[in-house]
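Subject: Interface between my chains keeps coming out wrong

I've been trying for a while to get a sensible model of this assembly. When I model each chain on its own everything looks fine, but I need the whole thing in one frame so I can look at the contacts. Pasting all components below, labels as-is. Any help appreciated, I'm running out of ideas.
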Amino acid sequence: MPQAPVAQASRKPSRIQLRNRKRILDAALEVFSAHGYRGATLDQIAAEAGLSKPNILYYFEGKQEIHVTLLNQLMHAWLAPLRAVDPDGNPLEELMTYVQRKLDMSRDLPRESRLFANEILQGAPRMAPHLESVLKPLVDETAAVIDGWIEAGRLAPVDPRHLLFSIWATTQHYADFEAQVRVLTSAQDVHDTAASHLDRMFRRLLTPDRDVI
Amino acid sequence: MPQAPVAQASRKPSRIQLRNRKRILDAALEVFSAHGYRGATLDQIAAEAGLSKPNILYYFEGKQEIHVTLLNQLMHAWLAPLRAVDPDGNPLEELMTYVQRKLDMSRDLPRESRLFANEILQGAPRMAPHLESVLKPLVDETAAVIDGWIEAGRLAPVDPRHLLFSIWATTQHYADFEAQVRVLTSAQDVHDTAASHLDRMFRRLLTPDRDVI
DNA sequence: TCGTAAGTTTACCAAATGGTAAAAAAGCGG
DNA sequence: CCGCTTTTTTACCATTTGGTAAACTTACGA
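Reply #2:
Try treating it as a single job with all components included. I did that and got this:
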């Protein structure tokens, strides 16, 4: 009776197990981000991973488990720049650094960005719990920090949540809507021009007015 | 030999034809925007439209034709606010009006927004020609108008294309990422607070500095 | 009201797809 | 080198899905 490692999710995983699970998740990221959950097939993932379909199902219980594993795993990396915002730092520079980090992620991890975008677009059917339990508390916390900065007069008044939405939207746009951006921009330095545009935009938004009391 | 209306795409369409094609496109918008192209099935569309699947294929050649028809048809409505920008109007107010119209569309036509987002996310496989032939010229034109305004000193210097990206990203975010927005905002007046946030943000970005020469 | 064209339904089909059973092969500790 | 476990492959399967053929029904102009 061969024991599927999937059945006994405990015990130290073997080297082969570690390597193949990684291969599968890499392949799945590629395929899911390009075609969405339902547009992706196990055959595609298997081909991309260089494994057979049944072999993939030896490591994961099914398509859905691969997807959920990916999403949960990426959530951490995805939110790292937000966690890195330092409540004790310079408010304006902390937020501008956050903007740039998010923009860099759009360039360096476009597949991850599209994977999340796809999931949210469909109503976050497989990620709603995580949004509630992981993202929401972090956002609440950050919003409180920003509100504190504003009350201290170190930042122009702004709705913290809408500010975050605007940062996410504008930075992730370059990954999620890349097909459109590519059609509309001839220049090769899209990232750099975007960086200076966003820096200007958010700096203007957030810099407190000095002449007013 | 029954003539499929699909075969002879000419001649004046009957009332029934008009009504049913509309029903099908309405249903398809609902289903495609919720599940993406590959996630949507003809059976779902048929059920939503209150017609049988073969009946649907009597009016459209196939799933793809329904999708392409939808996209092309919506493109016009979608770009209307951009076309409405008046080169002879007040630059700042023209653009702020554009922002508000786009935000209103996110609230009033979220399905259309998600349909486009889905298509672009997957690399615009079925809409690339339209992006090139319809969107690009319009954007080039608008960019020229904005550049003119900037040169005339009536607008703060900004990259016109990145400005448009930022407007699209921030406004459509409320439709495309609604599932996330809903988790993170408790208030009922999301639209109104978003409106004032975006007004402030883009007004600050675009208002020319007066004290500099 | 009758005949023809338009519209609809029933009954299918082939391919794709997520998944399984079980045998075969490869690893590996002793 | 042996025996046992882990890993991989081969051969399937049931369901879903886009699509078709052809019979049947309805609309409508003469």
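Reply #3:
Confirming on my end. The CA atoms of residues 28 and 45 of chain A lie 5 Å apart.
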